[in-house]
């Protein structure tokens, strides 16, 4: 599978039930090729939108079943789902921009949006910048760090450093959320 297809599949999986963000793959691609990584952002966004549509539709039909699935995803809790509902109720679709700032997965917004009466069109319209901004920022940061701070090291060493970064990041994230 090529890196573009992998970005699409990862974006789709993470938007539904997978719990590791596509940023991991996008940042790895960015170590070597910024232009390709930026194109992969669009593929990951496409996958995220497809996953968002699927969860939105499923939650429109069977909200309790979807909630039951989501609370079993690592680092997701019923309290987090309740906070998403409150945020969506208070500020509408703009709450999607809070997710990356609070460690709240996009999948929770997709599953909660129909419960507060948010239409699919508006949800998807706001999803595009809410997802894409973070993807692009991660790519630009990873590429800049790779070119400026880590340039003297081989690509293999840079990949190991990135792997250590993501391992430490997720260890801290799961410790904080759990």
UniProtKB/TrEMBL annotation:
<keyword id="KW-0472">Membrane</keyword>
<feature type="transmembrane region" description="Helical">
    <location>
        <begin position="41"/>
        <end position="62"/>
    </location>
</feature>
<keyword id="KW-0812">Transmembrane</keyword>
<feature type="transmembrane region" description="Helical">
    <location>
        <begin position="156"/>
        <end position="176"/>
    </location>
</feature>
<protein>
    <recommendedName>
        <fullName>Membrane protein YqaA with SNARE-associated domain</fullName>
    </recommendedName>
</protein>
<feature type="transmembrane region" description="Helical">
    <location>
        <begin position="6"/>
        <end position="29"/>
    </location>
</feature>
<keyword id="KW-1133">Transmembrane helix</keyword>
């Amino acid at each position: 599978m090529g890196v573009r297809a992998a970005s699409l599949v990862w974006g789709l999986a993470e938007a539904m039930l997978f719990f590791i963000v596509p940023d991991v793959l996008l940042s790895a691609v960015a170590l070597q090729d910024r232009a390709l990584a930026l194109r992969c952002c669009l593929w990951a966004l496409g996958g995220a939108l497809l996953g968002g549509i699927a969860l939105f539709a499923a939650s429109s039909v069977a909200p309790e079943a979807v909630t039951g699935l989501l609370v079993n995803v690592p680092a997701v809790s019923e309290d987090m789902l309740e906070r998403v509902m409150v945020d969506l109720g208070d500020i509408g679709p703009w709450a999607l921009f809070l997710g990356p700032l609070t460690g709240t997965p996009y999948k929770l917004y997709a599953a909660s949006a129909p419960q507060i009466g948010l239409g699919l069109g508006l949800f998807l319209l706001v999803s595009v910048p809410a997802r894409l901004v973070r993807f692009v920022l991660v790519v630009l940061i990873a590429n800049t760090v790779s070119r400026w701070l880590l340039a003297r090291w081989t690509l293999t060493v840079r990949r190991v450093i990135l792997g250590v970064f993501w391992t430490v990041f997720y260890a801290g994230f799961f410790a904080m959320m759990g």
